[in-house]
Amino acid sequence: MIHLGVNIDHVATIRQARYRSGPGGSVGYGEPDAVHAAHAAVLGGAECITVHLREDRRHVVDRDVELIRQTCPVKFNLEMAGTGEMQAIALRIEAHQVTLVPEGRQEVTTEGGLAVAGREEHWKAFLAPLKAAGIMTSAFITPDRREIDAAATSGFDAVEFHTGAFAHAFAASRRDLIDGVTADAPLAASILGLQEAIAACDDRLRVHAGHALNYDNTPALLSVPGVRDAVRELHIGHSIVSRAVFVGLERAVREMKALLAGA
Question: Is the pTM for the entire model greater than 0.90?
Fold first, then answer.
């Protein structure tokens, strides 16, 4: 069964648009409350809550991380840059899982995969205290064999494949994906890339996926041969938060859960 990780960063983005205070909006007061959002997502059936604590604290802030970790009854996944500050926070709060991502100051959301290849020894050393503390470690990477092999060598437990290429190709195509087959060349290329990446993981790495997934393209992704059986977690945020504006977060999560179940 595929578990759903709900990323609630953009609930905090809405809050910070109105209640930003100090460097990075570090106070974290105001509405909507990211802690309440995590609770609603769990009620909707989320098996994992994901938050990205950025170095500039542009949306999620330390207060959110502390309180969500204390009250979250499901897996707590901390997305973070590979810095000493973030490593210390993950260890202190005893995150269940950390997902290492690259960060850009000007990006709206994480736009690329982590550079693992060529830095294996660096990541081995960085992961060592996390793994010693029993924290699952994941690398957010592009579906590329070189990065997959590097992630395995570095000691990551999982990889989260950046699904942006698939999502963008799907949106630009005629949406003619039927049972994993399409005549659209860019979409076909993105699907093949994901299939090859999943196969390259073998039994070395747990497979997660996320980025730009929504209520339209997620069922299509799961129709691709090999995807539903291999992927253990899907991490989805913006689309669920957007849907929640109209129907509420608990229902938005339930609707995505139904899609994952094939209902």
Answer: yes
